[in-house]
Amino acid sequence: MCLAVPGELMKVDGNQGEVNFSGVSRRADLRLVPGAKVGDYLLVHAGCAIQIVPADEALETLKLFQEMMGEEATGESLSGAGDDEGK
Hints:
By secondary structure, this protein is α+β, with helices and mostly antiparallel strands. The protein is 23% helix and 37% strand.
């Protein structure tokens, strides 16, 4: 499975941008989102920004990622997935 991760565009330098992913900055290719501007939230996959997303949607997605990673780190399953298997 591949995931595109939302991040905030902090700086634009031609076709490249600096994107902040929860405190970690990475460069991303902006050619697929020519209208992107500083402050926009972008979905980034494999180093390429592929979509501009509304801030509220990006923040909700980041919150869900954090919740999933917290469950994974503690060894908890996702909301009882598979509890009814084989019954």
